Amino acid sequence: MKIRTFTVGMFQVNTYLLTDEATGQSAILDTGENDELVRRLEQFEREHGALDLRMILLTHTHIDHAGALSLLQKRYDAPTYCPTKDKPLYDTLPMQGSMFGMPHLDRPQGRVDHWIEDGAEIPLGETTLRFLSTPGHTPGQGCYYDDHDILVGDTLFSGSIGRTDFPLSDPKLMVESLRRLFELPGHLRVHSGHGPVTTLERELKTNPFVGFLRRERGIEGPPGIRWAPGT
Ligand SMILES: [Zn+2]
Q: What value does the mean pLDDT of the chain take?
């Protein structure tokens, strides 16, 4: 699967164009909060030819990830997949901007065609995307993955994890979700909702927010700060 990243909008969210290389079939993952992704995709099509777009996938429905769904569907309509457990947050999209003190970002919801559960398998050409539910940052936040790559939304970042102090967040669920996420193979390349690419293995060894997993599994963490004589 070929993965192209488009970092868009005022929240600099990573949205992704996923393409099954055998068939050229593509999916868009997450939307940004404005029309920047639409413009970037139009530019991409001018340079590379028309997209064979088969689906839109959402990791979760915070405004920076799903706020532009209706704009995207107006230009690139495709069956849209969203985690079932994020429905309560999805329902807030028309007033979510106001909830975060940015009423100009209140958005119509856009349309969801497939509400998906943990373990769902979604075929994209000859690729199968599997869905892992990782609630905590939001009630339904989830990850899509194949044998090489995982798209984690705001579950995990390079050196950090998603915030759990928002309305509808749950820090206890986040701990359970991280435990499940790190049961997947360490070689998986991690594509986050914000920031650079990493791998599960690298995060398990170095991420300061998963020290509890290192303790549970007896994995050595990053070296501590060394004292130099005389300092
Ligand atoms: Zn979020």
A: 95
Ligand 1 centre distance from Cα of residue 87 (Å): 14
Half-sphere exposure of 197 (CA within 13 A, CB side): 13
Question: Can you tell me the distance from the alpha carbon of 6 to that of 41, in angstroms, rounded to the nearest whole number?
Answer: 9
Give the CATH number, domain containing residue 180: 3.60.15.10
CA nearest to 33, candidates 197, 174, 194, 198? 194
Q: How many distinct structural domains can be found in the chain?
A: 1
Residue 226 within any structural domain of the chain? no
**Residue 180, in any domain of the structure:** yes
**Is the per-residue pLDDT at 207 higher than 70?**
yes
- Tell how far the Cα of 60 is from the centroid of ligand 1, in angstroms: 7
| Residue list, CB under 5 A from ion ligand 1 | 62, 154
Could you tell me if residue 46 is inside a domain?
A: yes
Mean per-residue pLDDT for 52-59? 98
Burial state string for 8-43 with b = 16 or more CB within 10 A and e = fewer than 16? bbebebbbbbbbbeeeebbbbbbbbbbbbbbebbee
DSSP letter for each residue of 68-131: THHHHHHHS---EEEEGGGHHHHTTHHHHHHHTT-GGG-------SEEE-TT-EEEETTEEEEE
Range of the domain at 121: 2-217
Give dist(CA 159, CA 195) in Å, integer. Answer: 10
List pLDDT tens digits, range 189-199. 999 999 999 99
